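Give me the fold.
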Amino acid sequence: MDMLYKVFIEPFVFMGEAPDLLIQTLWEGLVSGVLYALIALGFVLIFKASGVFNFAQGIMVVFAALILVGLYEKGVPAFLALILAALAMLVLAMVVERVVLRPLVNQPDIILFMATFGLTYFLIGFGELIFGGNPREMITEQLFLPQGTTEIGAFGGSIRLQHLDIAAAIIASIMIGLLAVFFSKTRIGRALRAVADSHKAALSVGISLNQIWVIVWFAAGIVALVAGIMWGARSGVSFSLQIIALKALPVLILGGFTSIPGAIIGGLIVGVGEKLGEFYWGPLVGGGVETWLAYVIALLFLLYRPQGLFGEKIIERI
């Protein structure tokens, strides 16, 4: 009985008694959720263009951030390093299209998935060879990302807002909005949906798979670069950052692999849920709720709504 009280009643009593802590937790979850949604959109881009989950998106976040920091450490000015990192993502997109994707046109989805799996470990090895395995600090001040904290009195307590978190939420929201317009309002966005439905049908109406794949992988690379900057500024730049990036998988399961609104809602559910779980229920299980709660939520969705909140239910007749 005492355990039931601690699980189902006490956390909510605490929320009512300390609303400032609840708002602080919700804010931190909101920021994390928006950044998860940004990473998830990189996965959505690739999935819309090929129908395959791009396992390499997580390491692309790390790789883009390492290129930026590595160039700056070599003496390249920060904003020039940012431009060169974006160009490196374009080169990566062209190489992936030419070496990996083009030979695998019309192959089963599992083949393309395994190709992205192999690309992941190639980028890990190549990144460690070029940059080493030591963690690095993101060049936040050089990129003029705001520092410091604003403290707001509320509900008899105070709420601390990190300026970096505010900037991260704004920048990620702008990127999400731009990608939503790109998908829904542009000719390339419509071509992406056609390619995802059928490679053969897209080719038959004159859509160039090669160009579409370069564009979409470059767009995913830019998303990875922005996500790498934001997460790197919060957590440092290291290869362990790809574990955070793979939190986008539960986000995609919740929202649906082809839905931009789903990525946003899924990101917010995961971000807010794991922060609330860690703060209010973490002490009951010894902490660490943030590392596994998102995957438990995703498992429940797979059991009861495998297409996600906004995904399409596909019925195949035999």
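The longest strand covers residues 149-154.
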